[in-house]
């Protein structure tokens, strides 16, 4: 059974701080990794994807991937109250069709 | 319409009813997915279709029956459901995932289903 784990939170950070969200996965054959944001009562919204080891930056968001450690993270710089949501990590194995989602980390950015 | 749309947005049905959920994507994708999201549980992949062919069925009970008449439309037919089937049902689409691992999924707004 392929598993994706995340800290359930809630993770609370003050406005303007850096929020760090972590995800680990069990399947070494996983090739691509996704971060989604889900506001309460809404559907998941894609933030970033990453498939190579290292960092990938997009605005205030940075995804970090370490395949050897089977670890992927999302950093949110200059956190805003509007970033308060549940963040879902998703992992896909190679060319397979199966996207496995983690349980999500609830982030609360305090004004 | 843009993106991925789903209807209805809310549905209440009895255990003996038959109903259908509809999904339509306007992104030119050719893979479509059904997910179930229950409270306090991770998103669960139910079915995957590529170019109208079902390629994944993750041990979903037969009371859920998918249909994909073309690459833009996906249905989930429901019959004799149980109260534990109450959840948010999400449709997603992506490009063909069989040629590259990169393609990301885009989700519809979901159908909130309550089985009484």
Task: Tell me what you see in this structure.
The complex is a heterodimer of chains A (111) and B (116). Chain A is mostly beta strands and 111 residues long. Chain A is built from no helices and eleven strands. The radius of gyration of chain A is 13 Å and the shape is globular. The radius of gyration of chain B is 14 Å and the shape is globular. Chain B has 116 residues and is an all-beta fold. The mean pLDDT of chain B is 90. In chain B, β5 (44-50) and β6 form a beta hairpin. In chain B, 34% of the residues are buried. Chain B starts with a strand and ends with a strand. In chain B, the strands form two sheets. In chain B, strands 2, 4, 5, 6, 9, 10 and 11 form a seven-stranded mixed sheet that branches. A four-stranded antiparallel sheet of chain B has the order 1-3-8-7, with no helix packed on it.
List the helices and strands and how they pair.
The complex is a heterodimer of chains A (111) and B (116).
Chain A (H helix, E strand, L loop, with lengths): L3 E3 L4 E4 L4 E7 L4 E9 L6 E6 L3 E5 L2 E6 L4 E6 L8 E9 L5 E3 L3 E6 L1
Parallel strand pairs in A: 2-11
Antiparallel strand pairs in A: 1-3, 3-8, 4-5, 4-9, 6-7, 7-8, 9-10, 9-11
Chain B lengths: L3 E4 L2 E4 L4 E8 L5 E7 L6 E7 L2 E5 L6 E7 L2 E7 L7 E8 L11 E2 L3 E5 L1
Parallel strand pairs in B: 2-11
Antiparallel strand pairs in B: 1-3, 3-8, 4-5, 4-9, 5-6, 7-8, 9-10, 9-11
Summarize the structure.
With about 110 residues, chain A is mostly beta strands.
Helix content of chain A: under 10%
How much of the polypeptide of chain A forms β-strand, as a percent range?
over 45%
- Percent helix of chain B: under 10%
Distance between the termini of chain B: 32 Å
Shape of chain A: globular
- The arrangement of helices and strands of chain A along the chain is EEEEEEEEEEE
Outline the low-pLDDT stretches of chain A.
none
What's the helix count of chain B? 0
Strand fraction band of chain B? over 45%
Uncertain runs of chain B with pLDDT below 50, 5 residues or more?
A: none
Rounded mean pLDDT score of chain B: 90
Instruction: Using the alpha-carbon principal axes, give the shape of chain B.
Output: globular
Structural category of chain A: mainly beta
């Amino acid at each position: 059974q392929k598993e994706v784990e995340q800290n359930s939170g809630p993770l609370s950070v003050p406005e303007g701080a850096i929020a760090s969200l972590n995800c680990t996965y069990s399947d070494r054959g996983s090739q691509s990794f996704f971060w989604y944001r889900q506001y309460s009562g809404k559907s998941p919204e894609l933030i970033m994807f990453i498939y190579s080891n290292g960092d990938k930056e997009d605005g205030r968001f940075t995804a970090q991937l370490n395949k050897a450690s089977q670890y992927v993270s999302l950093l949110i710089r200059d956190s805003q109250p509007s970033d308060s949501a549940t963040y879902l990590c998703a992992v896909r194995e190679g060319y397979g069709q199966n996207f496995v989602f983690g349980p999500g980390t609830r982030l609360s950015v305090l004004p | 319409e843009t993106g991925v749309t789903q209807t209805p947005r809310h549905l209440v049905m009895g255990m003996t009813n038959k109903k259908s959920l509809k999904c339509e994507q306007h992104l030119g994708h050719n893979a479509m997915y059904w997910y179930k999201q229950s409270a306090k549980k991770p998103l669960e992949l139910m079915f995957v279709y590529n170019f109208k062919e079902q390629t994944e069925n993750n041990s979903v009970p037969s009371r859920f029956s998918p249909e994909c008449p073309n690459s833009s439309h996906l249905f989930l037919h429901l019959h004799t459901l149980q109260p534990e089937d109450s959840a948010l049902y999400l449709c997603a689409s992506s490009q063909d995932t069989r040629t590259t691992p990169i393609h990301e999924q885009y989700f519809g707004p979901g159908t909130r289903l309550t089985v009484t």
